[in-house]
Amino acid sequence: MNTRTIPALGLGTFRLQWQVVIDSVKTGLALGYRLIDTAQIYGNEAEVGQAIAESGVPRDALFVTTKIWTENLAGDKLVPSLQDSLDKLRTDHVDLTLIHWPSPGGAVPVAEFMGALAAAQDQGLTRRIGVSNFNIALLQQAIDAVGAQRIATHQIELHPALQNRQVVAFTAGHGIHTTSYMTLGYGKALQEPVVQAIAHERGATTAQVVLAWGMQHGFAVIPSSTKRANLESNLAAQALRLTEAEMARIDALERGDRLVNPEGLAPVWD
Q: What is the distance between the alpha carbons of residues 165 and 269, in angstroms, rounded to a whole number?
């Protein structure tokens, strides 16, 4: 599975609803974003689909990601739920489908939902499959179920204060790509003095510095914004190349500061 075809920078839609998400996606697509990341639980797939349809950007130029919610992980529910997502998104396939969170309490075995996800891929409903918010033990179970070569990416919380190095090393060792969500750490990363200093030195924004850091590590990043200026600025992060010394200064900000840890959903983290 060629994970290099996952764009390095995309547009996230978490917490964006109604006209707000329509405007964000349409503006992003007009500016040049081509990866759009949504999820069943976001409740905005229909609006994302509307925005894509109204954008005029050809479907084959886009990379659309959605995620299967925990209530739809059972073998008889996953494919129908993805079909429902496709209907809302107004497309016959998505480019990437992720398991959003592992099944709470292991109610649905990893082998069952990964098998169903692989079946969805075989049926052409999704071009690639992957997982999100897994620990190493669960990742190993997913690999055992479908093979590492079939898992295109692992999407996890990853920002300068939480770099998830053990998990990233594990997936990299199996040839599995990493997608960073919350790369800006709810904006906390932008307040880091080190990041601010590098931004000042380079004539860049703090967001550009952090996004460039993520991309230079080989991660895909999916920041969201409702403001055209920020969307445009974030996109320009692709042109910023940090030095090894600057990368090391940001790497040193690791302190295990996890911001997303929902009770009942989160696994025991590594």
A: 12
Domain borders along the chain are 3-185+219-224
For 193-244, give the DSSP string. HHHHHHHHHHT--HHHHHHHHHHHTT-EE----S-HHHHHHHHGGGG----H
User: Hey, which residues are catalytic here?
Assistant: 42
Report the amino acid identity of residue 5.
T
How many angstroms separate the Cα of 255 from the Cα of each of 165, 190, 212, 220?
A: 11, 16, 20, 21
**Side-chain half-sphere exposure of 121, counting CA atoms within 13 A:** 20
CATH number for the domain whose boundaries are 3-185+219-224: 3.20.20.100
Query: With the C-alpha atoms ordered 169, 171, 175, 179, is the resulting torsion angle positive or negative?
Result: negative
Separation between Cα atoms, residue 176 and residue 103, nearest integer Å: 21
Contact (Cβ atoms closer than 8 angstroms) between residue 157 and residue 182: yes
69-103 confidence digits (pLDDT tens)? 999 999 999 999 999 999 999 999 999 999 999 99
Total-model pTM: 0.96
